[in-house]
Write a structure and sequence with these properties.
Number of helices: 14
Strand content: under 5%
Order of helices and strands: HHHHHHHHHHHHEEHH
Oligomer: single chain
Radius of gyration: 32 Å
Largest sheet: 2 strands, antiparallel
Number of strands: 2
Length: 329
């Protein structure tokens, strides 16, 4: 670089230093400015040495400190931006391999990377085609990351369930195995993955001609113990609702509602429950189910209530809601 070019670059750097220190003093602003800049790659080598030169020549200790801090902090931001740009370059060159890239480099696909990606796409506001291509690439990356995370969580859940399952099966007695299932339920660790394994074990045993009846009985008992515990984890209002929806006759349904709103000793059995609630609580649950259905907000609804999300069931819930409003509220 000749002297004239260096003088011009010094002026550019001095102007940028002023911008970074006065007009845009926050690190979030720096990230945006670097992502938007098409000239930063040319400026970078001179900028940091210029920060040091100005700091060395500065007599005011406060300003010296600010200049040194700017150089240090901006270098950290620049390193992040360069790392994000390199990853962006990798996926831009091989968009068909995004899934494989995510699998290999998942830790690099951070929230900060996607924020940088968004800013880079935004910087092409004068080139809609380029901007749209980057937006599509960003969406593909996000989808690949979500798919990878979901698969990883599923694998982790299955591995954890397998350990629990083996611990139950290897118990010294049926009573001990059942107590382990009860304990898992109390700790909210009796999940769907473990329940699936117990169900499959019992189902396979039931259909097998090679397995002793004693083993079948044990697996059936374990399955029923887990099923009973899982059922008790469902909010009682949902269990009451499901029972009410099995009653076709309006008078019989009204009678069941009155029973449900009459306090007494609550009993939970394998085949029959005696549960009690209030009209207000039941009305709230019905409203929650209907809201989730009408506004597609299933995420707000606990998973145990999702089998109520059926158009025919929804119609009956609407009718039940009116009955509650007219007769009990």
């Amino acid at each position: 670089m000749d002297q004239l070019d260096d003088e011009k670059m010094v002026k550019v750097c001095d102007k940028l230093i002023e911008v970074f220190m006065v007009d845009k003093p926050r690190a979030t602003d720096w990230r945006r400015l670097l992502a938007f800049s098409r000239e930063w790659d040319n400026i970078r080598p001179r900028f940091f040495s210029r920060c040091q030169e100005k700091a060395d020549a500065e007599e005011d200790p406060g300003m010296k400190h600010r200049l040194l801090r700017l150089g240090r902090k901006l270098k950290e931001v620049d390193d992040d931006v360069q790392r994000h740009n390199k990853l962006l370059e990798v996926i831009s060159e091989a968009p068909a391999d995004i899934g494989e890239i995510v699998t290999r480099r998942r830790k690099d696909f951070t929230r900060e990377f996607f924020e940088h990606f968004h800013v880079v796409a935004e910087s092409y506001h004068e080139d809609p085609a380029k901007q749209n291509a980057l937006a599509a690439l960003g969406n593909a990356c996000l989808a690949a990351v979500q798919a990878y995370d979901s698969a990883s969580e599923s694998i982790e859940a299955l591995n954890a369930a397998e350990l629990k399952f083996q611990d139950i099966i290897n118990s010294p007695s049926l009573d001990v195995a059942c107590r382990k299932i009860d304990s898992l339920a109390e700790k909210k660790e009796l999940d769907s993955a473990l329940m699936l394994m117990l169900t499959k074990a019992w189902s396979s045993a039931k259909e097998s001609n090679m397995m002793k009846d004693e083993v079948k009985d044990i697996l059936y008992h374990l399955y029923m113990t887990a099923r009973g515990n899982l059922q008790r984890l469902v909010p009682k209002e949902i269990r009451i609702l499901k029972y009410l929806l099995t009653i076709e006759d309006p008078e019989e349904q009204n009678s069941a509602l009155r029973d449900a709103f009459t306090p007494g000793d609550e009993l939970e059995g394998k085949d029959m429950d005696a549960l009690y609630t209030t009209p207000e609580k039941l009305f709230t649950w019905i409203t929650s189910v209907l809201d989730a259905y009408n506004f597609s907000r299933e995420g707000t609804l606990i998973r145990e209530a999702r089998d109520l999300m059926n158009p025919k069931v929804i119609q009956r819930l609407e009718e039940l809601k009116k009955v509650l409003q007219n007769n009990f509220l």
